[in-house]
């Protein structure tokens, strides 16, 4: 059972997360509109293809990167030794790959978001460890928060350095704080004269951290007092790792991504000049969340590259492996796996490209679309890799070198599975993507209904009710009107038109259903994570369906004699429609209470009787693991050492 302290901590975390949430929608969001019942096909159609000029820039860079990878990066060797080749890093720096997203005036390549995604996709199809060096550096490291929140002085000082290859990282997670960063323990205490802060604490799993030159570090600064209450403050700092007191406690190793540089860092009274605050004091969580909002597009970009690369393996093996008198690809069980893998890869590509184009054209808000892309690409990508491994049978489980050494074509799926699994965990886990999207799905209702249920002092109840009524009287009846079928879809064939009409109709059904469920549960809906997850999954499927249809139409207009994109869109949409119907059913009829019941009993130790005939506890060598706890050292007083500002 949650204690009073737990509940207090939960409320404080929710309050802080709520304050850090971006509430303003400067541009329309396809997904946010969809949750309100508006199907904004106009945002996705015509398909926002990359311009020829921009495509050429991407093509040329990718060709150069291929040479670099062939010469300096051997992913199998990296996987075996856990050592990332220094020469490869130097060559990537020379090529400007650490400044891909940085504007040319600050020494970067100034790539469009689409080209950046294409590069990550290309490298992701070859070596995921290489991706982590580049992506942690510029998707979430110093360049990304400085782009949005940095001052001109900070940009001039740091961007040219990181563009040239001073390595950067992003330190938010701590040993006790993962998905809920509001509870962080790292502190930054202002000096009496306000010229610097003293940073103290431990950060865990900082990618690039052990080799980084500059790190974005989130830390608690003194609370603000508002209406007599303490409001915790989190602030973002740029920290240079050669400053006294920055220490790499340990390098962390994982099931995959063996060439990743990742570690636990400790900050012992590190003196950080006040001008190194990004944004303003107290804006740290907002900066972290905003950075992740856009930065997490790197994960699906790399993922779709890996998936596209494996299409060749699927084709080759399913055609050439003959069992029971037929190529295995002609047995229906395997045909289903490889067909779904292909259709889902096509769908992911459509969605990632569309979201990148929104970011490039700055004509739509991408925070929900990037979350949807990351969630979909990593969940379906994982399922796809597993299906592919199953298609390869024993060879899928065997390591590439082992296959090669006995004269067979090597497959790299097992390594990619180990490397990509973390995509469902970092930069916001799948469960947290659900929560983020669910929060926005409910936003309209939360902002109108919550104040009625939990009125603040001095608010007029009559006014609150009137505001809600005014909105719902207009909005709700519209959800029952037929959807406009005039979507400029004449060129779509009848199958795709049917899918599109379903998508438009289902947006309204989704908005109605969310509203009815909100009315049924009230504020308690917040605790119904599985129902909210059903709604989010419906929303994600609708977004991906619409992206697929737009992409298929574009490809078929370009090449009218090839109807293969049509098949992929059709298969994806048919599967998605099945999932959507199942999700609607699960909202109405489910046994969600049983998960809670059994889960609670497990937490209470009521199923220990099941643990018989097992090796109990840890193997002897590991029993004293706590002796390795990184207890903070006697913190040296670095405040007397001049920080290199
Ligand atoms: C290889 C690797 C690289 C990383 N790189 C970085 C980095 O560069 N910088 C950085 O700051 N961090 C980094 N991380 C940390 C990463 O972002 C966290 O692992 C992630 O945020 C999840 O935190 P956690 O692992 O502590 O899981 P926890 O937060 O403890 O969660 C455990 C499980 O519970 C679920 N869960 C938690 N809260 C809820 C909830 N409210 N509702 C439903 N489910 C919930 C989670 O989804 C997860 O499945 C990295 C991690 C790894 C493994």
Explain this structure.
Helix content is 55%, strand content 11%. It has 24 helices and ten strands. The chain has a four-stranded mixed sheet with strand order 1-4-5-8. A hairpin with a 2-residue loop joins β9 and β10 (326-327). α1 (4-20) crosses α11 (284-295), α9 packs across α11 and α19 (443-453) packs antiparallel against α20 (461-478). It is globular and about 75 Å long. The two termini are 49 Å apart. The mean pLDDT is 92. It binds flavin-adenine dinucleotide (FAD). Flavin-adenine dinucleotide binds at residues 136, 169-173, 178-179, 205-207, 254, 262, 422, 425-426, 429, 431-432, 435, 529. The site of flavin-adenine dinucleotide has 21 residues, from β1, β3 and α18.
Q: Topology of this structure?
A:
Layout: H1 4-20, H2 30-35, H3 41-44, H4 52-72, H5 75-81, H6 86-94, H7 113-124, H8 128-140, H9 143-149, H10 152-164, E1 168-171, E2 187-190, E3 196-207, E4 214-226, E5 229-240, E6 246-251, E7 262-273, E8 277-278, H11 284-295, H12 298-320, E9 322-323, E10 326-327, H13 332-361, H14 367-392, H15 394-397, H16 400-405, H17 413-420, H18 430-441, H19 443-453, H20 461-478, H21 494-521, H22 529-558, H23 564-588, H24 592-603
Parallel strand pairs: 1-4
Antiparallel strand pairs: 2-3, 3-7, 4-5, 5-8, 6-7, 9-10
The structure holds flavin-adenine dinucleotide (FAD).
Flavin-adenine dinucleotide is lined by residues 136, 169-173, 178-179, 205-207, 254, 262, 422, 425-426, 429, 431-432, 435, 529.
């Amino acid at each position: 059972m949650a204690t009073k302290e737990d509940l207090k901590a939960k409320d404080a975390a929710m309050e802080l997360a709520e304050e850090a949430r971006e509430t303003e929608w400067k541009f329309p969001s396809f997904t946010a509109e969809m949750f309100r019942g508006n199907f904004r096909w106009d945002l996705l159609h015509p398909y926002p293809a990359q311009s020829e000029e921009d495509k050429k820039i991407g093509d040329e860079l990718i060709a150069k990167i291929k040479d670099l990878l062939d010469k300096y990066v051997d992913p199998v060797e990296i996987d075996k030794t856990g050592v990332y080749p220094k020469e490869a890093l130097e060559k990537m720096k020379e090529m400007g790959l650490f400044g891909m997203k940085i504007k040319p005036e600050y020494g970067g390549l100034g790539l469009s978001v689409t080209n950046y995604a294409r590069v990550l996709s290309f490298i992701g199809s070859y070596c995921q460890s290489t991706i982590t060096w580049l992506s942690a550096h510029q998707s979430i490291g110093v360049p990304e928060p400085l782009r949005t929140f940095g001052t001109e002085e900070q940009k001039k000082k740091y961007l040219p350095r990181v563009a040239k290859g001073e390595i950067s990282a992003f330190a938010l997670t701590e040993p006790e704080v993962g998905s809920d960063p509001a509870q962080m323990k790292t502190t930054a205490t202002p000096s009496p004269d306000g010229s610097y802060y003293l940073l103290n604490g431990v950060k865990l799993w900082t990618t690039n951290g052990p080799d980084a030159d500059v790190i974005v570090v989130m830390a608690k600064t003194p609370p603000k007092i508002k209406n007599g209450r303490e409001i915790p403050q989190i602030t973002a700092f740029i920290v240079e790792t050669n400053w006294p007191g920055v220490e790499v406690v340990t390098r962390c190793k994982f099931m995959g991504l063996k060439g990743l540089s990742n570690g636990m860092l400790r900050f012992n009274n590190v003196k950080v000049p006040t001008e190194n605050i990004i944004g303003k004091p107290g804006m740290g969580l907002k900066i972290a969340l905003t950075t992740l909002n856009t930065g997490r597009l790197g994960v699906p970009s790399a993922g779709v590259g890996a998936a596209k690369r494996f299409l060749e393996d699927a084709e080759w093996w399913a055609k050439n492996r003959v069992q029971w008198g037929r190529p295995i690809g002609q047995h229906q069980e395997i045909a289903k796996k490889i067909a779904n893998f292909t259709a889902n890869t096509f769908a992911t590509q459509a969605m990632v490209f569309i979201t990148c184009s929104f970011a490039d054209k700055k004509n739509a808000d991408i925070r929900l679309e990037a979350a949807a892309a990351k969630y979909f690409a990593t969940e379906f990508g994982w399922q796809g890799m597993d299906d592919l491994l199953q298609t390869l049978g024993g060879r899928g489980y065997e390591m590439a070198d082992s296959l090669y050494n006995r004269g067979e074509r090597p497959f790299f799926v097992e390594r990619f599975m180990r490397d990509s699994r973390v995509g469902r965990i970092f930069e916001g886990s799948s469960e947290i993507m659900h929560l983020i999207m669910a929060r926005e799905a409910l936003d309209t209702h939360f902002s109108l209904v919550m104040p009625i249920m939990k009125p603040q002092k001095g608010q007029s109840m009559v006014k609150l009710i009137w505001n809600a009524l005014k909105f719902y009287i207009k909005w709700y009846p519209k959800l029952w009107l037929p959807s406009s079928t005039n979507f400029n879809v004449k060129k779509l064939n009848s199958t795709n038109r049917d899918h599109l009409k379903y998508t438009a109709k289902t947006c309204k059904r989704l908005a109605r259903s969310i509203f009815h469920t909100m009315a049924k549960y009230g504020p308690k809906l917040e605790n119904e994570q599985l129902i909210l997850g059903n709604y989010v999954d419906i929303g994600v499927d609708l977004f991906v369906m619409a992206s697929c249809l737009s992409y298929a139409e574009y490809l078929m207009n370009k090449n009218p004699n090839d109807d293969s994109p049509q098949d992929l869109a059709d298969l994806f949409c048919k599967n998605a429609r099945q999932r959507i119907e199942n999700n609607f059913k699960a909202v109405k009829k489910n046994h969600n209470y049983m998960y809670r019941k059994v889960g609670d009993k497990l937490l209470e130790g009521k199923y220990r009787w099941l643990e018989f005939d097992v090796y109990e506890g840890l193997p002897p060598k590991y029993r004293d693991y706590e002796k390795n706890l990184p207890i903070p050292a006697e913190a040296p007083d670095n405040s007397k050492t001049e920080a290199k500002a």
